[in-house]
Amino acid sequence: MTTRVALITGAAQGIGEAISLRLADDGIDVALLDIHTKEQQLAALANKIAGKGRRAFVVPADVSSEEDVKSAIEKTVENLGSLDIMVANAGILGKLGPMLEASVEDFRRVHAVNVEGVFLCYKYAAEQMIKQGRGGRIIGSFSFSMSGIALNESHFRRGICCREERHVFDITLSPSSDATYDIAQEFAPHGITVNAYAPGVILTAMTALPGDEELGGHGMTLKKVVGAPPSLAVGEPLEVAELVAYLIKPEAKFVTGQCVSINGGMFFD
Ligand SMILES: NC(=O)c1ccc[n+]([C@@H]2O[C@H](COP(=O)([O-])OP(=O)(O)OC[C@H]3O[C@@H](n4cnc5c(N)ncnc54)[C@H](O)[C@@H]3O)[C@@H](O)[C@H]2O)c1
Protein backbone atom coordinates (compact mmCIF):
# COMPACT_ATOMS: atom_id res chain seq x y z
CA MET A 1 0.00 0.00 0.00
CA THR A 2 1.23 3.53 -0.81
CA THR A 3 2.44 5.50 2.22
CA ARG A 4 -0.28 7.86 3.35
CA VAL A 5 0.38 11.50 4.15
CA ALA A 6 -1.27 13.50 6.95
CA LEU A 7 -1.31 17.26 7.47
CA ILE A 8 -1.74 18.14 11.13
CA THR A 9 -2.51 21.72 12.12
CA GLY A 10 -1.48 23.09 15.50
CA ALA A 11 1.24 20.43 15.47
CA ALA A 12 3.90 22.24 17.49
CA GLN A 13 2.60 21.23 20.91
CA GLY A 14 -0.13 19.57 22.92
CA ILE A 15 -2.70 17.39 21.18
CA GLY A 16 -1.38 18.19 17.67
CA GLU A 17 2.15 17.13 18.60
CA ALA A 18 0.87 13.88 20.14
CA ILE A 19 -1.20 13.13 17.03
CA SER A 20 1.80 13.78 14.76
CA LEU A 21 4.02 11.37 16.70
CA ARG A 22 1.28 8.75 16.97
CA LEU A 23 0.49 8.77 13.25
CA ALA A 24 4.19 8.51 12.44
CA ASP A 25 4.25 5.36 14.60
CA ASP A 26 1.61 3.93 12.28
CA GLY A 27 3.79 4.50 9.21
CA ILE A 28 2.24 7.76 8.07
CA ASP A 29 4.33 10.63 6.68
CA VAL A 30 3.38 13.94 8.25
CA ALA A 31 3.25 17.60 7.33
CA LEU A 32 3.49 19.70 10.48
CA LEU A 33 1.65 23.01 10.41
CA ASP A 34 1.67 25.71 13.06
CA ILE A 35 2.12 29.47 13.24
CA HIS A 36 5.47 30.98 12.19
CA THR A 37 6.65 31.66 15.75
CA LYS A 38 6.54 27.90 16.44
CA GLU A 39 8.93 27.01 13.64
CA GLN A 40 11.64 25.78 16.02
CA GLN A 41 9.22 23.50 17.87
CA LEU A 42 8.05 22.15 14.52
CA ALA A 43 11.64 21.50 13.44
CA ALA A 44 12.37 19.62 16.69
CA LEU A 45 9.24 17.52 16.18
CA ALA A 46 10.22 16.83 12.57
CA ASN A 47 13.55 15.47 13.84
CA LYS A 48 11.80 13.14 16.26
CA ILE A 49 9.57 11.88 13.47
CA ALA A 50 12.56 11.37 11.18
CA GLY A 51 14.04 9.32 14.05
CA LYS A 52 11.02 7.03 13.73
CA GLY A 53 11.92 6.50 10.06
CA ARG A 54 9.09 8.62 8.68
CA ARG A 55 9.20 11.70 6.50
CA ALA A 56 8.15 14.97 8.15
CA PHE A 57 7.71 18.30 6.44
CA VAL A 58 7.45 21.58 8.34
CA VAL A 59 4.98 24.06 6.96
CA PRO A 60 4.53 27.22 9.03
CA ALA A 61 1.14 28.81 8.28
CA ASP A 62 -1.86 30.50 9.81
CA VAL A 63 -5.01 28.42 9.40
CA SER A 64 -7.17 31.54 9.40
CA SER A 65 -5.58 32.64 6.12
CA GLU A 66 -7.04 31.14 2.96
CA GLU A 67 -3.80 31.69 1.07
CA ASP A 68 -1.77 30.00 3.80
CA VAL A 69 -4.01 26.93 3.94
CA LYS A 70 -4.08 26.51 0.14
CA SER A 71 -0.34 26.92 -0.08
CA ALA A 72 0.33 24.57 2.87
CA ILE A 73 -1.64 21.84 1.12
CA GLU A 74 0.15 22.47 -2.19
CA LYS A 75 3.55 22.34 -0.48
CA THR A 76 2.61 19.16 1.38
CA VAL A 77 1.71 17.46 -1.88
CA GLU A 78 4.87 18.76 -3.60
CA ASN A 79 7.11 17.54 -0.77
CA LEU A 80 5.41 14.38 0.47
CA GLY A 81 3.54 13.29 -2.65
CA SER A 82 -0.13 13.43 -1.60
CA LEU A 83 -2.61 14.44 1.08
CA ASP A 84 -4.63 11.57 2.50
CA ILE A 85 -5.44 12.74 6.02
CA MET A 86 -6.24 16.23 7.29
CA VAL A 87 -6.32 16.77 11.03
CA ALA A 88 -7.71 20.28 11.59
CA ASN A 89 -6.53 20.45 15.18
CA ALA A 90 -5.31 24.06 15.53
CA GLY A 91 -7.40 26.14 17.85
CA ILE A 92 -7.20 28.89 20.41
CA LEU A 93 -8.87 29.50 23.70
CA GLY A 94 -10.55 32.88 23.77
CA LYS A 95 -10.60 35.13 26.76
CA LEU A 96 -12.73 33.51 29.41
CA GLY A 97 -15.36 35.69 30.99
CA PRO A 98 -18.76 37.27 30.63
CA MET A 99 -19.90 38.58 27.28
CA LEU A 100 -20.11 42.18 28.53
CA GLU A 101 -16.37 42.10 29.12
CA ALA A 102 -15.51 40.53 25.79
CA SER A 103 -14.29 42.54 22.81
CA VAL A 104 -15.35 42.02 19.24
CA GLU A 105 -11.67 41.60 18.33
CA ASP A 106 -11.38 38.62 20.68
CA PHE A 107 -14.53 37.14 19.23
CA ARG A 108 -13.37 37.62 15.64
CA ARG A 109 -9.96 36.06 16.28
CA VAL A 110 -11.46 32.95 17.86
CA HIS A 111 -13.97 32.72 15.04
CA ALA A 112 -11.22 33.18 12.44
CA VAL A 113 -9.05 30.37 13.83
CA ASN A 114 -11.56 27.90 15.29
CA VAL A 115 -14.31 28.22 12.70
CA GLU A 116 -12.91 29.70 9.47
CA GLY A 117 -9.62 27.85 9.93
CA VAL A 118 -11.42 24.52 10.13
CA PHE A 119 -13.62 25.42 7.17
CA LEU A 120 -10.55 26.22 5.05
CA CYS A 121 -8.72 23.05 6.07
CA TYR A 122 -11.74 20.85 5.28
CA LYS A 123 -12.48 22.55 1.96
CA TYR A 124 -8.99 22.57 0.47
CA ALA A 125 -8.05 19.15 1.85
CA ALA A 126 -11.19 17.65 0.31
CA GLU A 127 -10.46 19.35 -3.01
CA GLN A 128 -7.02 17.73 -3.07
CA MET A 129 -8.33 14.30 -1.97
CA ILE A 130 -11.03 14.35 -4.62
CA LYS A 131 -8.39 15.21 -7.23
CA GLN A 132 -6.29 12.24 -6.09
CA GLY A 133 -9.33 9.98 -6.36
CA ARG A 134 -8.42 7.55 -3.60
CA GLY A 135 -10.53 8.78 -0.70
CA GLY A 136 -9.23 10.23 2.52
CA ARG A 137 -9.82 11.08 6.15
CA ILE A 138 -10.78 14.48 7.54
CA ILE A 139 -10.74 15.01 11.29
CA GLY A 140 -11.75 18.14 13.16
CA SER A 141 -11.30 19.23 16.72
CA PHE A 142 -14.24 20.43 18.77
CA SER A 143 -14.09 22.74 21.69
CA PHE A 144 -14.50 21.17 25.06
CA SER A 145 -16.58 18.15 24.44
CA MET A 146 -19.48 20.16 23.16
CA SER A 147 -20.67 18.22 20.23
CA GLY A 148 -23.90 20.06 19.76
CA ILE A 149 -25.94 17.83 21.97
CA ALA A 150 -25.09 18.71 25.50
CA LEU A 151 -24.04 22.32 25.60
CA ASN A 152 -24.16 24.01 22.27
CA GLU A 153 -25.29 23.68 18.72
CA SER A 154 -24.95 25.19 15.28
CA HIS A 155 -21.56 26.79 15.65
CA PHE A 156 -20.40 25.87 12.24
CA ARG A 157 -22.82 25.18 9.47
CA ARG A 158 -22.78 25.71 5.78
CA GLY A 159 -23.79 29.32 6.22
CA ILE A 160 -21.48 29.74 9.22
CA CYS A 161 -23.93 30.55 11.91
CA CYS A 162 -22.78 30.89 15.44
CA ARG A 163 -24.14 32.08 18.70
CA GLU A 164 -22.72 33.01 22.03
CA GLU A 165 -23.43 30.88 25.01
CA ARG A 166 -22.89 30.95 28.75
CA HIS A 167 -19.70 32.53 29.96
CA VAL A 168 -17.66 30.55 27.58
CA PHE A 169 -18.90 31.65 24.19
CA ASP A 170 -15.36 31.96 23.00
CA ILE A 171 -14.37 28.38 23.66
CA THR A 172 -17.56 27.02 22.19
CA LEU A 173 -16.81 28.37 18.74
CA SER A 174 -15.93 25.28 16.80
CA PRO A 175 -17.43 22.95 14.22
CA SER A 176 -20.68 21.40 15.36
CA SER A 177 -21.81 17.82 15.08
CA ASP A 178 -24.40 18.95 12.53
CA ALA A 179 -21.68 20.24 10.25
CA THR A 180 -19.61 17.09 10.67
CA TYR A 181 -22.60 14.98 9.70
CA ASP A 182 -23.54 17.20 6.73
CA ILE A 183 -20.04 17.40 5.33
CA ALA A 184 -19.55 13.65 5.78
CA GLN A 185 -22.61 13.10 3.56
CA GLU A 186 -21.21 15.43 0.91
CA PHE A 187 -17.81 13.77 0.81
CA ALA A 188 -18.97 10.16 1.19
CA PRO A 189 -19.23 9.53 -2.58
CA HIS A 190 -15.50 10.35 -2.78
CA GLY A 191 -14.54 7.82 -0.12
CA ILE A 192 -13.64 10.58 2.33
CA THR A 193 -14.78 10.18 5.93
CA VAL A 194 -15.31 13.21 8.17
CA ASN A 195 -15.22 12.88 11.95
CA ALA A 196 -14.28 15.01 14.93
CA TYR A 197 -13.01 14.56 18.44
CA ALA A 198 -14.46 16.52 21.33
CA PRO A 199 -12.02 16.51 24.23
CA GLY A 200 -12.75 17.14 27.86
CA VAL A 201 -9.97 18.76 29.86
CA ILE A 202 -6.66 17.60 28.39
CA LEU A 203 -3.39 18.58 30.06
CA THR A 204 -1.78 20.94 27.54
CA ALA A 205 -0.58 24.54 27.55
CA MET A 206 -4.11 25.59 26.60
CA THR A 207 -5.59 24.36 29.85
CA ALA A 208 -2.85 25.69 32.15
CA LEU A 209 -4.62 28.82 33.38
CA PRO A 210 -4.13 31.43 36.06
CA GLY A 211 -5.81 30.27 39.24
CA ASP A 212 -5.01 26.58 38.69
CA GLU A 213 -2.64 26.37 41.61
CA GLU A 214 -5.12 27.83 44.08
CA LEU A 215 -7.82 25.47 42.89
CA GLY A 216 -5.65 22.35 43.05
CA GLY A 217 -3.63 22.04 39.82
CA HIS A 218 -3.54 22.04 36.02
CA GLY A 219 -7.00 22.06 34.45
CA MET A 220 -8.89 23.13 37.58
CA THR A 221 -9.74 26.67 36.43
CA LEU A 222 -11.14 25.41 33.19
CA LYS A 223 -13.23 22.76 34.98
CA LYS A 224 -14.65 25.54 37.11
CA VAL A 225 -15.45 27.71 34.07
CA VAL A 226 -17.24 24.92 32.22
CA GLY A 227 -19.10 23.85 35.34
CA ALA A 228 -17.42 20.45 35.65
CA PRO A 229 -16.87 18.94 39.12
CA PRO A 230 -13.32 19.38 40.47
CA SER A 231 -13.03 15.59 40.76
CA LEU A 232 -13.57 15.08 37.01
CA ALA A 233 -10.72 13.16 35.40
CA VAL A 234 -8.33 15.00 33.11
CA GLY A 235 -6.77 13.47 29.99
CA GLU A 236 -3.39 13.34 28.30
CA PRO A 237 -2.79 14.39 24.67
CA LEU A 238 -1.87 10.80 23.77
CA GLU A 239 -5.37 9.65 24.69
CA VAL A 240 -6.83 11.90 22.00
CA ALA A 241 -4.07 10.86 19.58
CA GLU A 242 -5.03 7.19 20.01
CA LEU A 243 -8.60 7.99 19.03
CA VAL A 244 -7.42 9.87 15.93
CA ALA A 245 -5.11 6.97 15.06
CA TYR A 246 -8.19 4.75 14.92
CA LEU A 247 -10.39 7.18 12.97
CA ILE A 248 -7.83 7.52 10.20
CA LYS A 249 -7.28 3.80 9.73
CA PRO A 250 -8.45 2.29 6.43
CA GLU A 251 -10.48 -0.14 8.59
CA ALA A 252 -12.42 2.81 10.07
CA LYS A 253 -14.10 3.55 6.74
CA PHE A 254 -17.51 2.73 8.27
CA VAL A 255 -17.13 5.50 10.87
CA THR A 256 -18.13 8.85 9.41
CA GLY A 257 -20.14 11.92 10.33
CA GLN A 258 -19.41 11.39 14.02
CA CYS A 259 -18.15 13.59 16.78
CA VAL A 260 -16.53 11.38 19.39
CA SER A 261 -16.47 12.73 22.93
CA ILE A 262 -13.29 11.88 24.80
CA ASN A 263 -13.89 13.55 28.09
CA GLY A 264 -13.53 11.25 31.10
CA GLY A 265 -17.30 11.11 31.47
CA MET A 266 -17.76 14.89 31.61
CA PHE A 267 -21.32 14.32 30.44
CA PHE A 268 -23.43 11.82 28.61
CA ASP A 269 -23.41 12.51 24.88
N1 LIG B 1 -6.62 20.83 25.81
C1 LIG B 1 -7.92 20.68 25.98
O1 LIG B 1 -8.41 20.39 27.08
C2 LIG B 1 -8.85 20.85 24.82
C3 LIG B 1 -10.20 20.65 25.06
C4 LIG B 1 -11.09 20.79 24.01
C5 LIG B 1 -10.65 21.11 22.77
N2 LIG B 1 -9.33 21.30 22.56
C6 LIG B 1 -8.95 21.63 21.21
O2 LIG B 1 -7.89 20.77 20.80
C7 LIG B 1 -7.03 21.47 19.91
C8 LIG B 1 -5.59 21.36 20.39
O3 LIG B 1 -5.55 21.95 21.67
P1 LIG B 1 -4.29 21.89 22.65
O4 LIG B 1 -4.81 21.68 24.00
O5 LIG B 1 -3.25 20.98 22.09
O6 LIG B 1 -3.84 23.41 22.57
P2 LIG B 1 -2.41 24.09 22.49
O7 LIG B 1 -2.66 25.54 22.75
O8 LIG B 1 -1.43 23.38 23.34
O9 LIG B 1 -2.00 23.88 20.96
C9 LIG B 1 -2.68 24.50 19.93
C10 LIG B 1 -1.73 24.74 18.79
O10 LIG B 1 -2.47 25.40 17.74
C11 LIG B 1 -1.62 26.40 17.19
N3 LIG B 1 -2.38 27.46 16.54
C12 LIG B 1 -3.13 28.41 17.15
N4 LIG B 1 -3.62 29.26 16.23
C13 LIG B 1 -3.16 28.84 15.03
C14 LIG B 1 -3.32 29.33 13.73
N5 LIG B 1 -4.04 30.43 13.47
N6 LIG B 1 -2.72 28.66 12.71
C15 LIG B 1 -1.97 27.56 12.95
N7 LIG B 1 -1.79 27.05 14.19
C16 LIG B 1 -2.38 27.70 15.21
C17 LIG B 1 -0.87 26.95 18.41
O11 LIG B 1 0.27 27.68 18.01
C18 LIG B 1 -0.57 25.69 19.19
O12 LIG B 1 0.66 25.13 18.84
C19 LIG B 1 -7.54 22.90 19.83
O13 LIG B 1 -8.36 23.06 18.70
C20 LIG B 1 -8.37 23.03 21.09
O14 LIG B 1 -9.43 23.99 20.97
C21 LIG B 1 -8.43 21.18 23.55
UniProtKB/TrEMBL annotation:
GO terms for molecular function: oxidoreductase activity. Gene3D superfamilies: NAD(P)-binding Rossmann-like Domain (3.40.50.720). Transmembrane segments: none annotated. Signal peptide: none annotated. The keyword Oxidoreductase applies. InterPro entries: NAD(P)-bd_dom_sf (IPR036291), SDR_fam (IPR002347). This is NAD(P)-binding protein.
